Amino acid sequence: MSTEQTPVLYGYFRSSASWRLRIALEWKGIQYELRPVNLLTGENKSEEYRQVNPTGKVPAFVTKDGKILSQSQAIIEYLEETYPERPMLPKCTTKRAEVREICQIIACDIHPIQNLGVIKRIEEISSMSKEEWAKSSITLGFEGLEKRLEHVSGTYSVGDSITMADFYLCSIVGNAHRWGVDMSLFPIITRINNTLMTLPEFIAASPFSQPDCPEELRKK
Coiled-coil annotation: which residues (predicted)? Predict the structure, then answer.
């Protein structure tokens, strides 16, 4: 008798880390239960949620075996190794490294300095608004990302096949749009994102397709 259960995703509709994981789940065709965690009301800091993820961050993921994982990169790698259909990494070892490089540029260099906790703190300790900080930090990060994509991109972020790098790119571009980044400065990033956002998996994973997205944002 199978003891497998439906995987569970704890996430927030606008969290870019949750977003890229949703794309991976859609890409792999994995059925899962979504349990929204509202970051604005502090649900992630509740004792109940900290029993799931002691760091109080999203996403958290309960596997089909009942194991709890956190950190989007670790979860996406787990999905790649556990569900071989529709691979998210190329066979070529150099290309695999390039995919992970793009993921890390976004996840380590761009995303952390404009997430919710950081921009709140910036407003507390400086005269810069959260909008100014987020816009300038993403713009600076995109300057380097655009240059790197000149060398590794094809139709998509790395070559002509969709990889996990595209999940990261799509979610960080969503943040850029939110904070008013001038995307005309980044034609490669824009072209790739526009292509990705025509695909059903990416549309389904969009923040504005999620049940915890406020109706006023969904209509925009």
Answer: none
pLDDT beneath 50, residues of the chain: 1
pLDDT at 219: 61
- Residue 182 exposed, middle or buried by CB count within 10 Å (0-12, 13-18, 19+): exposed
Provide the pLDDT for residue 120.
Answer: 80
Tokens of 84: 């071989």
**Integer-rounded Cα radius of gyration of the chain:** 17
User: Global pTM?
Assistant: 0.94
Please list, in sequence order, all residues whose beta carbon lies within 8 angstroms of the beta carbon of residue 82, skipping any fewer than 6 positions away: 63
DSSP code string of 69-114: EESHHHHHHHHHHH--SS-SS-SSHHHHHHHHHHHHIIIIIISGGG
- Residue-wise pLDDT for 45-80, tens only, equals 999 999 999 999 999 999 999 999 999 999 999 999
93-204, CATH topology level? Glutathione S-transferase Yfyf (Class Pi); Chain A, domain 2 (1.20.1050)
Q: Closest Cα partner for 178 from 211, 209, 208?
A: 208
Check if the beta carbon of residue 157 is closer than 8 Å to that of residue 165: yes
Q: Which CATH superfamily is domain 8-86 in?
A: Glutaredoxin (3.40.30.10)
